[in-house]
Amino acid sequence: MKEKGKIQIDEKYTQWKSLIPVIYDWFANHNLVWPSLSCRWGPVLDQGTFKNRQRLYLSEQTDGSVPNTLVIANCDVVKPRVAAAEHIAQFNEEARSPFVKKYKTIIHPGEVNRIRELPQNNKIVATHTDLPDVLIWDIEAQPNRHAVFGAAESRPDLILTGHQENAEFALAMCPTEPFVLSGGKDKLVVLWSIHDHISASTTDPSSAGSIIKNKKPSGGNNGKAADSLSEFCSVGDDSCLILWDARVGTTPVVKVEKAHNADLHCVDWNPHDQNYILTGSADNSARMFDRRSLTSSGVGSPVHKFEGHKAAVLCVQWSPDKASVFGSAAEDALLNIWDFNKVGDQGTTPGLFFQHAGHRDKVVDFHWNTSDPWTVVSVSDDCGTSGGGGTLQIWRMSDLIYRPEEEVLAELEKFKSHVIECSWRS
């Protein structure tokens, strides 16, 4: 069965590769020696005429022969309508991209399961590993390390304690305040404020390595977490979607039973409209809920069910560029882009308008670039394939795909007239 699935993925990949010049404005493929379970955009460092240089955060999940690492890279992001179609279609799957250069290595205590940057200062990142603690890193202050066997672990700038059991994946940052949110196997959702540490660390280097204990753990489930001002939500293996409000204590505001028909893996709150919440599940679907119509008992009633994956959905994220658009990544090696405003349109899969099939194995994480519209970084864990390691891809779909139809047709007509005029002159 696995072999059949691999053949289907390879066939889809071959078809996808032939379409790169048509459906992408820019694409870069970067082979990873070790898989990365997370990828995030950092700050823009430099703005050029044809490209911007930007930080990229990823990791190396090793086999123990060398240490696990948190990697800070510099990425040259080519601007829209600059890259030639023939150039983006030519790449070596087993090579590193010239657009991605490693800048700094941090030797991480254990595997890096999740990376999240602080929106108020994206040089500060939090990481989850196979431990109860959340680790906070000041990327610029941390020394560059050489990852060799036996090397000492880097020292985090801050350690957040409060979980009673391992907290491996559920991690989020508040968009408006320096709050860190985490979920763990202890069925707790824990919230910390690191405001004082950020203020102190800029003036007092001795504050590095501090430990902050949470004051009020919330009894919840063992799922992922997302944030929305003082409100947040969590999901877990109990198939529940739970909404919390830090202002009213540690009791759930709403608990939706059976939000999906299987374990829930991920959740995201719409940054444009706080009423909409996305979830992804082992039932191969993504669902959108409206918190104004959530039920506290019985089966949850999603506004839409998005069924375009053939394996468990591992990551969902709303687009920062359009309120109705989101992405979903899954174990079927696909990253689907959806628009819930297109659900009523004719099509085989309601709402699906773009499918990134550039990975050959499960897509474990992706991140929209808030500094460069419609640009995405995605990463796959390729250990299940013959090549092993992982694949990092940076890509931007052609704007002809998502712009209004009338606008696109007008541009194509103008281009057609230009071609005819040039042909007539020659």
UniProtKB/TrEMBL annotation:
PROSITE patterns: WD_REPEATS_2, WD_REPEATS_REGION. This is Histone-binding protein RBBP4-like N-terminal domain-containing protein. The keyword Repeat applies. It comes from Kalanchoe fedtschenkoi. Residues 200-209 have a biased composition (Polar residues). GO terms for biological process: chromatin organization. The keyword Repeat applies. Belongs to the WD repeat RBAP46/RBAP48/MSI1 family. WD repeats lie at residues 257-290, 306-341. Keywords: Chromatin regulator, Repeat, WD repeat. It comes from the Eukaryota. Residues 11-78 form the Histone-binding protein RBBP4-like N-terminal domain. Residues 200-223 are annotated as: Disordered. Gene3D superfamilies: YVTN repeat-like/Quinoprotein amine dehydrogenase. It holds the Pfam family WD40.
